[in-house]
């Protein structure tokens, strides 16, 4: 008789291991409340900084992709910045083919809180993967809230380096 009671208790304990729907909603509500309280402390500048860093990574990848495409198919590829009232607002990658220029990827917009500074608006790679503008290297600077990034493109090789520096 004692063994049967222990067995019944064990079964009841197993049945009670799951959370009820009300308990789950209460936990999610508390997590949401804590997140809402923490957001002003972290601030929106942290989100803008993350947007800037993501933009810099995308820009570096698009420069590398332009170079790879130029090598792969022999047509010049270029990344062109578009300005709005003198400020860089977006960029896109184009193919300079025999039938004219064709945009090969979507237009990327500069996120809010970021400023792009560049000496030239067109960055062209030839069939060998070299950057065709004059000089030994060119720099694109992206200023964010807490950091700025320097993208250095070396002309002979077309390779790109990215340096992240804290804002003074």
Proportion of β residues? 25-35%
How would the global form be characterised?
elongated
Radius of gyration: 27 Å
Number of strands: 9
Q: Helicity, in percent?
A: 25-40%
Largest sheet: 5 strands, antiparallel
Count of DSSP H/I helices: 3
Order of helices and strands: HHHEEEEEEEEE
Overall pLDDT metric = 84
The structure class reads: alpha+beta
Give the termini distance in whole angstroms. Answer: 78 Å
Q: Low-confidence parts, pLDDT < 50 over ≥5 residues?
A: none
Write up this protein.
By secondary structure, the protein is α+β, with helices and mostly antiparallel strands. 39% of the residues lie in helices and 33% in strands. It contains three helices and nine strands; from the N terminus they run αααβββββββββ. It has helices at 2-15, 21-42, 44-73, and strands at 76-84, 87-97, 100-103, 108-109, 115-118, 122-125, 137-143, 147-154, 160-166. Strands 1, 2, 3, 4 and 6 form a five-stranded antiparallel beta sheet that branches. A four-stranded antiparallel beta sheet has the order 5-7-8-9, covered by helices on one side. Strand 2 and strand 3 form a beta hairpin. It is elongated. The termini are far apart. The model has no long low-confidence stretch (mean pLDDT 84).
């Amino acid at each position: 008789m004692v063994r049967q009671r222990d067995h019944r208790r064990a079964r009841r304990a197993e049945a009670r291991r799951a959370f009820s729907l009300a308990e789950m909603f209460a936990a999610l509500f508390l997590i949401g409340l804590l997140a809402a309280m923490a957001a002003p402390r972290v601030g929106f500048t942290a989100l803008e900084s993350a947007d800037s860093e993501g933009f810099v990574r995308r820009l570096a990848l698009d420069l590398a992709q332009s170079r790879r495409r130029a090598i792969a198919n022999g047509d010049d590829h270029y990344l062109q910045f578009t300005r709005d009232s003198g400020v860089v607002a977006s960029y896109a990658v184009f193919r300079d083919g025999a039938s004219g220029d064709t945009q090969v990827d979507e237009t990327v917009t500069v996120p809010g809180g970021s400023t792009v500074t560049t000496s030239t608006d067109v960055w062209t790679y030839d069939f060998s993967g070299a950057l065709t503008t004059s000089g030994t290297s060119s720099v694109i600077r992206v200023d964010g809230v807490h950091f700025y990034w320097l993208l250095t493109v070396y002309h002979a090789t077309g390779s790109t380096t990215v340096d992240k520096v804290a804002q003074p």
